User: Fold this.
Amino acid sequence: MSTTSREIHLVKRPEGLPTLDDFAMVETQVADPGEGEVLVRNLYMSVDPAMRPRMSVGQELNEAMGGGALGRVEKSRNPAFREGDLVTNRFGFREVFTSEGRGLQVLHPEPGLPLTVHMGPLGGTGFTAYGGLLHIGQLKDGEQVYVSTAAGAVGSMAAQIAKIHGCYVVGSTGSDEKVRWLEEEAGLDKGINYKTAPIRQTLKAATPKGIDVYFDNVGGDHLDAALASMNSLGRVAVCGMISGYNEAGSRTAVRNLSNIIYGRINLRGFVAPDFMHLYDQFKSDMAGWLKDGRVKYQETIYDGIGNAPAAMVGLMQGANNGKMLVKLAD
Amino acid sequence: MSTTSREIHLVKRPEGLPTLDDFAMVETQVADPGEGEVLVRNLYMSVDPAMRPRMSVGQELNEAMGGGALGRVEKSRNPAFREGDLVTNRFGFREVFTSEGRGLQVLHPEPGLPLTVHMGPLGGTGFTAYGGLLHIGQLKDGEQVYVSTAAGAVGSMAAQIAKIHGCYVVGSTGSDEKVRWLEEEAGLDKGINYKTAPIRQTLKAATPKGIDVYFDNVGGDHLDAALASMNSLGRVAVCGMISGYNEAGSRTAVRNLSNIIYGRINLRGFVAPDFMHLYDQFKSDMAGWLKDGRVKYQETIYDGIGNAPAAMVGLMQGANNGKMLVKLAD
Assistant:
């Protein structure tokens, strides 16, 4: 016996912004699990900015686009998994797959919170923000903080964690509606719309005491603007550089990097595995913040695997509020 | 009574490379020291790449160009200084000055070494290399190291300190003659001439095991080339970005900075006061290395204050071998 699945393959490397034509949906038959295997049906797929550079380098063509997902074990011939177990995985844009269990983590959902928080604030997204800010950025209470893509999945978490630490927090985003969310819902001190005025001037005006920590998701002109306002011994936690992901060659030109010399600025790229020692503390902190409403979150959920390419394209154009997900099944 | 002195003033902010016209020599009369003051005659003035960005921002026009110097106390009415004391100072391009003593440090020359080593390898120049590599760059024995402007004052020290720590060391420079010095005198594993082939390719070929620590004096294309070869968790100690000093606005465009994310690279700007706790260890280590010949150094000495502008212009064009100095008196 076998199960019908559909996958979204990358069939072309995008030049500039990805388009729907870069993807194709492919129907496959997934054989029943053999001894030691499980069969998993994905419920939600994550759509992340970091997938874009992998579309240029790393992701194989004509294979399912890799990425984070949350599924449920439908059949198990592996004693480590029971039918009905929820499992997070990195097998990406596909409905059903079998696995020997490597790369599957059983998820025990936090009671009292929606399941999707594990794909966002209480998952890798939130953990990236938490460790990036506290471990990589070495945030101290009461510092001056700037977060770019502050209404995005990671940025909105970083900005609110900084607020909880008593910081003055400025966030940049791409629409007035998102600015309102930042100021009125997420409680930031100041939101700025980088599309309506040059980021360098608006950021300078919004940070009268300079910037001690910049949580960077954008690079390029946003990083240049931040460097022009950084305080001495400031830290830049470099989580992403989305500004460069869609340029030819996925490059970002930064022009005033020499500011880091006299300011003795530390720029540090990171990925979440760099601070796994903080994971338990993160889960406990964030679950509490979500339950008592101190951390707000948004999610944009596209329905059905056929909409995964549109979700990816939309993410690159800022169509999302907060975490971008694709829902596949209940 | 008074003493005649000459000073080199910055009279124009350079656009691009500095020219002789950006400077003027001005004769002044320096009054005898008052109570609590000393009168100092400079013996040597230091000519540093870091002076260039200050010519655009920081240095006042129509005042003596600031910078490091070594002088001798000629008259003292301050009990902290005796006539004949050697004093390092930051009063820059001038022959004679009076001071209340602030910013003057009495120098006790290291026996058995020429006086000028205190302006180079055994002075701020060497200390910048030492702390930049060991403290900021967190160098570990046996690592893969790349140093730019490796035949320059700071670079040549950084490269040789890395060799003493058992590292594989590649240095880039701007002439075949300097490449020979790096390989044959300074003992580097590989010297590359960035003017005869694209730095990105030559650096890649010269670093088969990648780069763990890049000691950056150049920025721009050299930093881009290094980022393309950095190993995971690599460190970039950013000492200078000379490539950008002479562009309009003193800017350096770096295009593939996003490499730091997945490589989890740490870029850190620094100045020597960041690691003063290493100073005594540095003096002891470096004096030993110089005496036993493990560290070689070069210096290019222009004669007379009138040649200070030419020394500055020459430095920016790579006319120096090692430390660039102007000699004023014996």
Observations:
- Chain B has a mean pLDDT of 95.
- Chain B has two domains: 2-120+297-327, 124-276+283-289.
